[in-house]
Amino acid sequence: MRIARSVRISVAAVACTGLLSLAACSGDSEPEPKAAESNETPVDDTSEAPEDAVEEADASPAATEGQPDWAQPVTSAGDLISTFEVGDVTVEAYQVGTAEATKDGNFADPETNKPLLAKGDQLVFVNYVVTNNGEPIDLGSSLVNITARYDDWQWMQGMDSIVDDALFEQLGVNDAAFTPDAYRDPSVYPFGAGEQYSYAENFKHQKGSPITFEAVITPVDAEGELLHDDRIEGTGTGTIA
């Protein structure tokens, strides 16, 4: 998983393979950006795709101005389902489209030992557009860490996702916020006033389900150390169609 998929994209996730119990995966260190194979482009409605593989959504042309030099071109595909603030930062969540999972996820139901997200299950893709409406801020490699969870999600572990670059490309969204050459040491990623970036994530599609988005900003100093005392949180809500 890529760092901004949650950075979630949220957030880097470590695969948990135990089938008898679910355990949250976490860590204090900042993950390094992982290079994407190519910049994402909007879906070409005339292109061929496997039957029932992807339900496409309209995508706006990629933008290149008003964004950090470490970010991929912003995409604003999908229907807006939530807008919320994290301090001076605005997060917009767009429901883009659906696709079939091409493999099993990493987590299992402890009672049935079956994957929470199985091959062939329907995925929904949500695209996040993040805009800094305040003063410049230095972010770590987790950027603005966004986590999505259905309100009726009953498992301790977060919602699983599938890493498949081809699905993100077909839907015209970024599978990571960073460009292939974004890595910096120390991990300091300036987010200027008026700048924005975008990335998408996927999880199991529950049509008609209320969902909550939680976002955290933890700025860093010049050495890339997290400034926990300056941590900012924000929450948004919506409904997956």
Number of strands: 9
Averaging pLDDT over every residue, what do you get?
81
* Helix amount: under 10%
Provide the β-strand percentage band: 25-35%
- Strand pairing plus helix content: what structural class? mainly beta
How many whole angstroms does the radius of gyration measure? 17 Å
Distance between the first and last residues' Cα:
25 Å
Largest sheet composition = 5 strands, antiparallel
Shape: globular
Series of secondary-structure elements, N-terminal to C-terminal: EEEEEHEEEE
Number of helices: 1
Poorly predicted spans: 1-64
Structural features, described:
The protein has 241 residues and is an all-beta fold. Strands 1, 2, 3, 4 and 7 form a five-stranded antiparallel sheet that branches. Strands 6-5-8-9 form a four-stranded antiparallel sheet, with no helix packed on it. It is globular, with a radius of gyration of 17 Å. It starts with 53 loop residues before the first strand and ends with a strand.
Question: What labels would you give this structure?
Answer:
241 residues; mainly beta; 3% helix
What is this entry, summarized?
By secondary structure, this protein is mostly beta strands. The chain has one helix and nine strands. The strands form two sheets. Strands 1, 2, 3, 4 and 7 form a five-stranded antiparallel sheet that branches.
Topology:
Blueprint: E1 54-55, E2 79-86, E3 89-100, E4 122-132, E5 137-150, H1 165-171, E6 189-191, E7 196-204, E8 209-219, E9 232-240
